[in-house]
């Protein structure tokens, strides 16, 4: 596998008749059991995966081109090609193919794909008709030769036989010698026949014939023959253009003669295909597929040869960056690199990677910084094209360069800032260059292509760099054209001058900047949010709603729509605080009843807010602008906003009432539990004291009561105050509300208490021997203290009950029987 002779590139022909590279590997021919035959196998040199597995079919037409190419068709509209690194490897595989098909390896093609009727006719042909009999190459026979060439184009097998005949007898060179004779004699009839002959030979689509016709000593005569189209009154002057007008410029002398010859040949063949030959019809579109392949592989060889010549590229870069280089010379160098990069698009991905890495190592990006700052418009345009190739190939490579550059370079000369300034200063009325540069900037700041696993911090680092060093350059025109008006605005006011620039080119530029900022809002959540808040950017953007250019007003509206579409609370509070709906609503009202894009876009903005039910914005709009909007009835958007607003307000009121009631209920429930425990403890203590000897305890009780009177009275007053300030005890009703009920008195509360209720409810018997006056005199303070404890369920709103309690005589509990 390591044999370089077997190293190949695999290509497939796409629907646009362009060759797509499938990879590089090593080819072998071996018997494959599954396919039941000898097959071509190509395994990738990188990982050994199978790139190609194709059985060598006896009926498949294989074609050998340019000594290192083998082309064939696997199926209808599916063409394959193997491009060998060395001629020896191509010859080896070609011999194997011919061996399987039983063909002579000296042939350039094994057979043509032919339909059944053609094959039957071919089988009926005698063996002696292996080649087409060509008339003698003489002036008198030119018409006959032209008829023969034209007649075989409809038959694949006859085209093949004619091609073999032309090659075997050196017929092409003889025909071109006749062309010189006819031109010297001004034989127009003969020249017209030669045009038909040469055109027909090109349509034979044979690489072996192209090698002869496009050689240095033949190609100009071929171009000469194609000048004499019978449909033209006067011949075209293609040779004059190629030899005199078209100049081959060597920015650095190319010493490799083979490379020079290949460049000349490719340019002329491309000229023949694009300029001289008429556009092929639907039936002729496949006639020149080999010519397309011929040009394609020539370009691949040119790029590879230039890339391998390190001395040449080093010299080119040295002159490009040298300050002493003349402007004209630098222009030629830049144009050379532009074409060089265009040719590189034909390389396979691995080789294209190596190509651009070589350019990066040689300093292509610093060179572009210098070139983009030049005054020459052509040079700047070419530099932008080169930059676009680099960005499309590897945005990460460009980002890495500019971040490293920021460490030792001023902000003004950073590559991205240079690109932004080129976009801002584009002199084209249609801003063609600015549009191109805006697309490149969007590619560079797109987080989607910053997800490479090898560098997970690239996104954060680059966006931080961009917003720190570059964003102010990008937004400078926007801020300058929406500047504050110090004359009209009072001190401390943030009012913006409503006068917008009416210049169409400036409006286009601001639209491009807004498009880029809108992209940032969608993809840079954190960085752009901080920038908008710090610069009050949305307010400045909405000034453009006053522009007479509707497309600019729509761009400003689109920017706000993207912000609202994020449904971010920070943005919503920023919009409400700044009253930023005002310019939008003013634009809607100024638009009147006109049914246009601006009207629809503004209504869609409010419809989105309504459908998504963004409550804070709905409340702000209804509170501040509904009076101005309620007259708009051709859509139900604003009435819908009002309805949403009222529904939300009712829900909030209900939730607030329920929440307050619940809090009150929980507080009272907790307090009720504490009061109940305190009452039980005091009653137990009191009844324990009654169990002592009545007479002996009377004086003691009197003394104790007198000693405890200040404390008991203090407890009573404190409890009374708490009761007056305390909330009512709620009860849930069937109507879904809380209802408050009250106890009539402390005595009533005690009267409903379990087993001890009778002590408080039964009045003392004055005739009882146990009810002495000393006892009665000593009891009121204690009784007052008990009433204070029990009376915690009394409430100040029940004034009548309070008066009733205070006016009624105190009831002394019975001490026992």
TrEMBL record:
Residues 144-647 form the Serine/threonine-protein phosphatase 4 regulatory subunit 3-like central domain. Residues 684-698, 795-806 have a biased composition (Acidic residues). Residues 684-711, 745-817 are annotated as: Disordered. Transmembrane segments: none annotated. One of its GO terms (cellular component) is protein phosphatase 4 complex. It holds the Pfam family EVH1_PP4R3. Residues 745-787 have a biased composition (Low complexity). Belongs to the SMEK family. This is Serine/threonine-protein phosphatase 4 regulatory subunit 3. The gene is PPP4R3C.
